[in-house]
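Reopening this ticket.

The earlier resolution said the output was attached, but the attachment link was broken on my side. Pasting everything inline this time so it's all in one place.
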Amino acid sequence: MSRACPSQRGTSLIEALLAFLVLSLGMLGAVRLQRHVEHGADLARQRSEAVRLAQQDIEQLRGFTAVAAASGVRSYAAIAPAEVEIGPSAADHDSASYRVDRRIAEPPVGLLKTASVNVHWTDRTGQPHGVLLQSAISGTPPALSAVLPVHAGAPPTRSVQGRSPRIPADSRDLGDGRSLFRPTAASTLAFVLSNTTGQVIARCTAGAGEFVDAAGCVAVEGLLLSGWIRFSLAAAPDAAGADALLPLAMSLELTPGSAAPEPECFVHPRAGLVAYHCVVATSVPWSGRSRVVPLGWALGTAPGELRVCRYVGDHDGSGAIDRNAEHPEHYSQVDVNLMQQNFLVIHGDRPCPASPAAITVAHQP
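Inline output:
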């Protein structure tokens, strides 16, 4: 008797198709995973490049070496945003381009500036990305930082050698409660000052010889306005000879309607600075504005022109330069001698420097 053949076993067409479908889905998932890994790697490289660009821009700001000259920003103290297009990096295989958006926030007095550097780019999928770095930078260029110790000092409160602190230090004590002050060493004009108040009480003239005493002087009443003018024109802090003194004069323009005669102003270069003194012959308080008068050089804000900055000091902590001794732009009702009303002359395309120790503000132009 014959035996029955065993049943045939194998893979049906449906089973093969299902296996192929599962394999295809797995391969598709692997491809998508690979693309996701590549995209993540690209994004990591792009973010690293964006951080590098932002750090580079921040360091340029800190070093005052370059502040987006191509964008039209003229200095590190720019307030408007600066946008710079940066081409593809060799490290970015998807040729991403970056835009560096720099914003500088200025405080009221310019002591410290807040720099925000935002780097934007778009990945290969069209999604935008950005990296933001922020830092505080000094508001004073290094070439100008050394001039800030010469500032408008606080109002004097102590007498010097028994004389009023409002008397110039190089005045000669006559020994009778008066001092003789010559505005320049070669001047044939001198003024007699009261040792008690420092105010002008006489005007003297003499020949080429030295003043021996105050005899023969004409009695007047007047007040002094005195200070120093410093130049800082070096392209670098150690540039030799770049801060040579330039010829200048001083003027004191009294408020229209003032009864005082035209003030007499004198300048005297000494020790790398220019000393100035203006005498207002008046017995009543005066108001007005002092100006540096250039002789052979121009005031302005363009390259090749110069700017005059005014040293100021908020001595009363009011938050404003509103007292005569604080060196305001316009003096009002001055009834005492004003000393240490100092100025700084810098390149016209630079901002007036400031630091926690001293502040200067634009005076001219």
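Reporter confirms the inline version is readable. The helical segments are 13-63, 142-145. Residues 66-93, 236-242 have pLDDT under 50 and may be disordered.
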